[in-house]
Amino acid sequence: MRAVLVFIVFVVVLGGLSPLGVWAEEITPPPSYAPLPLELASIQAKSAAPQAPTADCGYNASTAELLASTSAHDWLSWVEKLSGAEPVILAGETYTITTRYTPKLFDGSAHARAYDYVLQQVQGWGYPADNIEQDSWTSGAFSGMNLVLTIPGQITPTQVVALTAHLDSLSPLATRETLAPGAEDNASGSAALLEAARLFRHYQFDRTVKIIWFTGEEQGMLGSGAYVNDHSLSGYQGVVNLDMFGYDGDNDRCMELHVGALAASDVVGQCFAASVAAYGLNLSYDYLTSDFTRASDHARFWDNGVGAVLLHQNGNLTATGGCNGVRDRNPYYHQVTDTVANSFPPYTNGQPNTVGADIARAGLAAVLGMAGNRGACFSTQPVVILQDYGRDMQLAWDALPGASSYHVYRRVHTSPEALVYSGPENSWMDTSVVYGWDHHYRVEAVAADGVCLSEATDVGFSWTGYPRAYFPVVKK
User: Which stretches of 240-354 are DSSP H helices?
Assistant: First the structure.
């Protein structure tokens, strides 16, 4: 969540309000500070959606299946990696991400390679290169990149639903270049997007889905500002922005849903509310159509007439509603202490606190409702047989109905996994088997759209001399 400047001057633009001047380096507010809401009712849309957005956000069996495939542990694992609680493997090397301060993300610093790590994950999940956009931006003294993943819609691909979060983090001036873990702000949202990218690759949608990691948010929503200026928003039906959620010091499972004043945003907000109810997510929330905040990337879409909501911790306001006027703000906001241990302490039995993961699920469900979840593109996965040819190993599998091609990935011992085959044949010969090492293979089917994938079949063998030992590999 962006820290608000000491002062902001506004001018009237097109009958509405618009920031004036260049954003300076922010000053971290004291713990008692709450960003002031700004009325948006008079803002004129400069690139509104072509028609009123619609959504069917009731229970969907495929969405329920997808949500059941993610857990509190899955979400928290990404948070741990992005905030330095756990190391990451990047191109076979081990790194610990200790800051995600925007200027450090792109200067090659070994301790700030979060953008590279997220990009590696998305590429490794088999999305075509043309569907992964690295969107460069420059604003004043700052520059960076947004990462945009596009999953084309099957029925109305020109209509877009976006799931967004900012990847960057912040801490006091003396530490931000080396230590800004940002576990809640905003590894929480970035982790939810990673889970979405991991899971959505197996499903197809009526509308196009975009998953966007913004940078430069902490300097005044610079990345999202550049994005809305550089991209047409004419087909955007709704945006779900996840920023700083999951801290729950009073264990009331309550959050804030910042809907704002646009009618199009209410469609997205009602979809979120319906999703919470449909999938039994046991969350309560303040539904804010007044006293809302602009202090995150959703505001850039509001300014362009696009419906958007912000999913946020119960920390900014004391509005009556789902949280009963109780304010439960994370005291570690923009501090070096915004760590997993402090911001997401486990339950007393040691199990992960599920609030953050359930908020993430609700956000994913709302996007799926807005996008129209058509279901998994494959009901089964390839059945792979290994055939030993001495120094070579052949993988063969029956053709999968609906598949136009297949991917084979190989990992030898602890080396990085690599794509070794992509094509229509349902067999592949490994002619470079390495004596004495374990070999792991993943085989997945690719639908005709080139994007939607089957679940992967994981197999492997250990060649330590004859006879060889074959084994299944359990891998998510």
Answer: 263-278, 298-302, 340-343
* Residue 432, C-beta contacts closer than 8 angstroms, at least 6 positions apart: none
Number of domains in the chain: 2
Element (H, E) at 361: helix 355-371
Confidence of residue 465 (pLDDT cuts 50, 70, 90): low
In sequence order, the 6+-apart residues with CB closer than 8 A to the CB of 93 are: none
Q: Which of 330, 348, 375 is the last residue of a domain?
A: 375
Angle at 206 between CA 203 and CA 212, to 5 degrees: 70
Taking residues 81-95, report their average pLDDT.
96
- Specify the residue for token string 């006091």: 172
Among 340, 375, 410, give the residue marking a domain's end.
375
Rounded Cα distance between 218 and 428, Å, is 48
Residue 146 lies in a domain: yes
257/274 Cα distance (integer angstroms):
13
CA dihedral for 69, 71, 77, 79, sign (positive or negative): positive
Weakest-pLDDT range from 185-199, 310-324, 371-385, 412-426: 310-324
For residues 372 and 57, the answer to whether their CB atoms sit within 8 Å is no
Indicate the residue type of 27. Answer: I
User: Longest Cα pair distance anywhere in the chain, in angstroms?
Assistant: 79
Residues 6+ apart with CB under 8 A from 34: 316, 317
Q: Tens digit of pLDDT for each residue in 18-45? A: 332 333 334 333 333 333 333 332 223 3
Evaluate whether residue 15 is within a structural domain.
no
End-to-end CA distance of the chain: 31
CA distance 443 to 431: 17
Per DSSP, which regions of 183-306 are E strands?
Answer: 203-205, 207-214, 236-242, 254-258, 284-288
Q: State the angle between helix axes of 72-82 and 114-124 in degrees (0 to 180), rounded to the nearest 10.
A: 140
- Per-residue pLDDT at 4 exceeds 50: no
State the amino acid at position 226 in one-letter form.
Answer: A
Nearest to 254 by CA among 403, 402, 355: 355
Q: Which residues pair with 137 in a beta bridge?
A: 144
- Residue type at position 320: T
What does pTM read for this prediction?
Answer: 0.88
For residue 49, the one-letter residue type is A
- Cα separation of 224 and 242, whole Å? 13
